[in-house]
Amino acid sequence: MSYQLNYKLEGEGHTIVLIHGLFGNLDNLGILARTLKEDYQVLSVDLRNHGLSFHSNCHNYESLAQDVADLLKNLNIQQVSIVGHSMGGKVAVKLSEIIEDQVERLIVLDMAPVKYHQNRHDNVFAGLKAVEQQKPANRKQAMEILSHHIELEGVRQFLGKSLYSEGDYVAWRFSVTNLFNNYQNILDWQPIRRIATPTLFIKGGESDYLTAEHQADIQKQFSQAKAHVIANTGHWLHAEKPAEVLRAIKKFL
Q1: Angle CA 197–201–207, to nearest 5
Q2: Measured on CA atoms in the order 14, 102, 249, 95, is the torsion positive or negative?
Q3: Which ranges form a coiled coil (predicted)?
Q4: Which residues contact 152 (CB under 8 A, 6 or more apart)?
């Protein structure tokens, strides 16, 4: 069994690593990759338990970041800048500590390097498990099952991108069991030692994932951190306002 992450490498020049969030895959930040690959080499990854990468019952930030570090080593990529969204933002931060001397710039999309105490995904897990149990024959049936648990159409559509046909029924690409069992690890955070990597936190103006009260925690872990707010957008800022997010990223790079 291969323990190398599934990835996509596009473009040429300085390498930018794109890291998706929970329940995502390497296509999630594709909207950023399409523009960035015009000027950079872009490495998009499927994290463990997601997309076409391997499944593991170990799922914590140390292992998630080490997977990406190992991939960079295997691809012989030395210097990188890293962009991570949500859970992927925490992976990006941990990776920046592990390979600090290789990271030129770090960009974190709508996530703080802190432990979160709120279970935001109870209804999502209920919907995902219902689909697994009922084994719907097609995508339409799966989306119908999800609608009994998840109110927001946008969230259902996002999750639906990870459905695939498994013979007579559709199934999830990500490992619902491993992610559910490790959910406390995903909320959790062990502060990194303070790093000097220039870092940009981009916040969705209407999102509560990254707030003023996280500032002290950020300053303890980063000596060069800046923040940028994208107005009128939530946690999925790159999907809602891609042009504004790209402008902030390019300016920082």
Answers
A1: 160
A2: positive
A3: none
A4: none
Radius of gyration of the CA atoms of the chain, in A: 18
Q: Under a CB-based contact definition with an 8 Å cutoff, are residues 73 and 57 in contact?
A: no
Roughly how many angstroms between the first and final C-alpha of the chain, as a whole number?
A: 37
Give residue-wise pLDDT tens across range 200-241.
Answer: 999 999 999 999 999 999 999 999 999 999 999 999 999 999
Active site residue 86: yes
Please report the domains of the chain, with CATH numbers, ordered by start residue: 7-115+191-252 (3.40.50.1820), 122-181 (no CATH)
Closest CA to 110 of 80, 124, 90, 125: 90
The values of phi and psi at residue 51, to 5°, are: 55, -130
d(CA 83, CA 19): 6
**Active-site hit among 53, 86, 96, 175:** 86
Q: Are 112 and 218 in contact (CB under 8 A)?
A: yes
Question: pTM of the full predicted structure?
Answer: 0.96
Q: How many CB atoms lie within 10 A of CB 101?
A: 7
Q: What is the mean pLDDT of residues 69-92?
A: 98
- Give me the catalytic one of 50, 59, 235, 238: 235
